[in-house]
Amino acid sequence: MRLTRREFTHSALLAGVAATLPAGLLSGCSVSSNAARTAGSPAPVSSHAGQFDTSSEIAFPRNFIWGTATAAYQIEGAWKEDGKGESIWDRFAHTPGKIKNGDTGDAACDSYHRWREDIALMQAMNLNSYRFSISWPRIQPAGSGPANSKGVDYYSRLVDALLDARIRPFVTLYHWDLPQALEDAGGWPNRDTASRFADYVDLLARALGDRVSDWILFNEPSAFTDLGHLEGTHAPGRKSLLDFLRASHTVNLAQGAGFRALKATRPSARVGTAFSMSACEPATDSEPDRLAAARCHAITNLWFLEPALKGRYPEALAFLPETAMGIKAGDLDKMRAPLDFVGINLYYRTIASAPGAMERLSHAQQWLFPVKMGVGQQGPRTDIGWEIWPQALYDVVTRISRDFNRPQIEITESGCAYNDGPDASGVIRDARRIAYHRQYLQALARAIADGADVRGYHAWALLDNFEWAEGFGQRFGLAYVDFKTQRRIIKESGRWYAKVAAENRVGPV
Ligand code: FCB
Questions:
Q1: Could you read off the pLDDT of 448-460 as tens digits, one per residue?
Q2: Residue 223 near ligand 1, beta carbon < 6 Å
Q3: 500 in helix, strand or coil?
Q4: What span, in angstroms and rounded, lies between the C-alpha atoms of 123 and 337?
Q5: Residue 67: in which H helix or E strand, if any?
């Protein structure tokens, strides 16, 4: 089986830690074994099959928000236009061998020039929310200093046009494209980057905060700290446990600092983060596997959420290596950010099991991170190899709702890669994508019925785009893009989603 982005992540968290753990690293750390306590709150064992019945109608609450999502580097192109600086993704994609097929985001979907067409696609789909991200190096080409007015103008025009189209601008401030100059100064492992981030947030709060009311500080902090710093398959391509741990802490500090910067200028802004989440199921009913699932939940779902909402690190590791992470006195308070909503990106579940005694003895990392994470094997797979398991969305949404006192939740991403193209008549018949969203929405509706306060759903993605290390080989869009001509065609799934949004319900099949 081909390793996908996330399958690889999971194995790397095990293999990579061993490879990068300096022998002396652990010696300066405060040690507190959390094993016994985490054992008390195992992840739920799913009692439902992964699939859902499709014969019923599913209604959503009044004013439910229907949207799609994209990210700047994945769609904009124009990588050095209008004064934009280089980002870590420009650098990474221009490095031979990093991206499949040698693809880059230099042109991507050319949304920097075709954003009017993209808004028209959303109007045709009856959507009322667009989650897009701002490219930091368009605003601050070298990562600090005053705003580049041409960069600000681009997003300002986009926001105005969205508002004219009655589509909520839902702005992600950081979707992985750090200015390269900040990487050169140490990147996320350097705690100064948290202050740079707060300065950048402040510039945008001032420039757009009169019209944008809904903000996402980070997209998937656990994905970019891990893939970019430990695994090395994403920008900036580092492979170091120490960098991963330090980057984690800086991002948690930045989340607190960014939250305060936004609220200082725009107190009524609604601010959250889009967390990458997965339902962690124990491989068996055994006590060690249940403990492993609890750890999986902590490192996957809570590593950036609990610092924000509770001012502490979750009990994910065997102990918290405070020195290695660069945690200083007062930092726990600085990490606090009483987010107005919890954004959830969810695609699949994770199966957790306990490492065997020999594994724990022979791999230093198993002391720090004693859990093995794999993918589920029962559900069907999308073209990128991710298992379809709608129950995961129900499990995670209800669990976060229960454990964090029923916060507002936005589904900030869910979607599937299917590489269907136009048939002879130019129609893209992607019935499998319709089935995916239908089932995930059905799971979501059940979570809402069971008490979760979910405000909206954003399908990933509005249109086919640059899928990071996979290049253009994986198509997630509700609209098809011909990357040679940049022509967009709404897929059958986009037409179906338009009906769902218009009727605020999913009709029976
Ligand atoms: C998420 C990312 C998004 C996209 C989807 C498929 O992890 O946030 O940019 O790549 O996966």
A1: 999 999 999 999 9
A2: yes
A3: helix
A4: 34
A5: strand 65-69
> 177 with 73: CB under 8 angstroms?
yes
β-bridge partners, 240: none
Query: Ligand 1: does its nearest atom lie under 6 Å from the Cβ of 226?
Result: no
- Residues whose CB is less than 8 angstroms from the CB of residue 430 and which lie 6 or more positions away in sequence, other chains included: 418, 420, 491, 492, 493
The residue behind tokens 């959303």 is 122
Residue for token pair 């681009």: 154
Residue 351, CA distances (Å) to 161, 306, 373, 447 in order: 44, 22, 6, 21
In contact, 293 and 282? CB cutoff 8 Å:
yes
Residue with CA closest to ligand 1 atom 10: 467
The phi, psi pair for 344, rounded to 5°, reads -120, 120
For 215-254, the pLDDT digits (tens) are 999 999 999 999 999 999 999 999 999 999 999 999 999 9
Neighbours of 264 (CB within 10 A): 12
Alpha carbon 83 to chain centroid distance?
Answer: 28
- E strand segments, 106-153: 129-133
Residue nearest to atom 4 of ligand 1 (CA): 467
Which atom of ligand 1 is the closest one to the Cα of 415? 6
pTM of the predicted protein model: 0.92
Over residues 360-372, the pLDDT tens digits come to: 777 656 677 889 9
**C-alpha distances in angstroms, 174 versus 246, 398, 455, 457, 482?**
18, 27, 22, 20, 27
Q: Looking at the DSSP assignment, which residues form a beta bridge with residue 233?
A: none
**Beta-sheet pairing, 487-490 with 270-282:** unpaired
Strands 214-219 and 505-506: unpaired
Catalytic site includes residue 413:
yes
DSSP 222-278: HHHHHIIIII-SSTT----HHHHHHHHHHHHHHHHHHHHHHHHH-TT-EEEEEEEEE
CA-to-CA distance for 167 and 123, rounded, in angstroms?
Answer: 8
Mean per-residue pLDDT, 368-377:
92
- Assess whether the C-beta atom of 218 lies below 6 angstroms from ligand 1: no
CA–CA dist 483, 478 (Å, integer): 15
C-beta of 467 in contact with ligand 1 (< 6 A): yes
Angle formed at CA 171 by CA 58 and CA 438, multiple of 5 degrees: 20
CA 16: distance to chain centroid? 21
Q: 345: Cβ below 6 Å to ligand 1?
A: yes
Report residue 218 as tokens: 């980070």
What is the token pair recorded at 235? 């920008």
Ligand 1 centre to CA of 284 (Å) is: 29
Q: Report CA(382)–ligand 1 centroid distance (Å).
A: 14
